[in-house]
Amino acid sequence: ERFLQVCDVELTEEVRRCLKTPTFDNWQWEDAEMLLLLQLMFLDLELVSEFGVERRALRRLLLRVYARYNHIPFHNFQHCFCVSQMMYGLICITDLRSKMEHIDLLAMLTSSVCHDLDHPGYNNAYQINARTELALRYNDISPLENHHCAVAFELLEEHESNIFRNLTKEQYKRVREGMIKCILATDMGRHNDILASFNAILPTFDFRNREHTDVLMMIMIKVSDISNEARPMQVAEPWLDCLLQEFFSQSDVEKLEGLPVSPFMDRDKVSRSSSQVNFIRHVLLPLFVALATLFPALQEQLVEPVSKALEYYSTMEQALQQHGGTGRQ
Ligand code: 5GP
Ligand code: MG
Ligand code: MN
Question: CA 20 to 30 Å from 78, out of 14, 36, 112, 148?
Fold first, then answer.
């Protein structure tokens, strides 16, 4: 509790403005400062005033969330912060406050904060192949995402950290449904299906249609979740190192345990550039382009930086190939 009160970030206008854009640099901030900035996002979207969220409960929830992210290379509290910050930025840039029900925005921002809670650093394929407790508990169905969501509601059930305690029954039901939908949608195994449903409704998208906004909510958290490459190069590059470090430790363990190894995680098969060229071309860009069709302002803010990153990594990849390397770096 004191942690947050003691910390005195200077919230200048410049910081507040930057917090709304994808250019925000997470690496400049201490954990305590990021906790304060997360609070600021809830306040600034007026979710606190609108839904009677108690400041103490919000602070307590964020501290409990902080404690339930693990100290692992990628899926840590800093990643939680980045995804939440991107979600906040997207909501601001697209002016979603004037387009969607605010209870859905509350669900989206809270989901972002909670979306990788207690991530163990090994993905669903590992959980399933290694028959871990999580895979057994959730019958191999999105074991990690089910776990993140269950932990989220475990924290929200505690009275002191229940930011939803002043909601009506209907509002609570709605926010819980929204959060479950959003967090479960972050399973990349469902990527193609979710993107296909979004592309199918895009030509007739209607903000008054609940089915449409439900898909949009899923797309928004997915975009936020995998948005590192939309950030400036000096912010994005360290994240790639973190991700590959976590991937490589998983594949090392899989080799030791005689489990199947995903090629995109194998340190003998993957380079920084090959990994990013494939991911950006086949996963990131199609997703971002779809969202930018609905919100043209995102063309400049998201699609262009990602296209630049693709160019950068393609050039690097070509140079590697020409030098006849093994593709390793
Ligand atoms: P998360 O693991 O954060 O729950 O879901 C996002 C997943 O998308 C990551 O685990 C990873 O597999 C993939 N991903 C996100 N960002 C990148 C990236 O920059 N490069 C690559 N190759 N994969 C990414
Ligand atoms: Mg996840
Ligand atoms: Mn994530």
Answer: 14
Least Cα distance to 117 among 155, 88, 87, 86 occurs for 155
Q: Are 260 and 126 in contact (CB under 8 A)?
A: no
Neighbour-count burial of 283, counting CB atoms closer than 10 A to its CB (0-12 exposed, 13-18 middle, 19+ buried): middle
Residues 135 and 158: their CA atoms lie apart, in Å, by 26
Helices (H) and strands (E) in the chain, counts: 18, 0
ipTM for the assembly: 0.99
**pLDDT tens digits for range 208-256:** 999 999 999 999 999 999 999 999 999 999 999 999 999 999 999 999 9
Cα–ligand 1 centroid distance for 167 (angstroms): 34
| 172 CA to centre of ligand 3 in angstroms | 24
Phi first, then psi, for residue 302 (nearest 5°) are: -120, -50
Token reading at 101: 């029900």
Is residue 206 annotated as involved in ligand binding?
no
- Measured distance CA(47)–CA(245) in Å, rounded: 37
Distance CA 263, CA 84 (A): 29
- Compute CA distances 80 → 31, 70, 188, 199, 216, whole Å: 11, 11, 17, 27, 20
Q: Is the CB of 116 under 6 A from ligand 1?
A: yes
| CA dist., res. 168 & res. 273, Å (int) | 50
- pLDDT tens digits, residue range 123-152? 999 999 999 999 999 999 999 999 999 999
Q: Which of 71, 75, 102, 323 is catalytic?
A: 75
Q: Is the pLDDT of residue 17 over 80?
A: yes
Q: Which residues surround ligand 2, an ion (CB under 5 A)?
A: 116, 186
Distance of CA 218 to the CA centre of its chain: 11
On average, the pLDDT of the chain sits at 95
**Pair of tokens at residue 58:** 């919000």
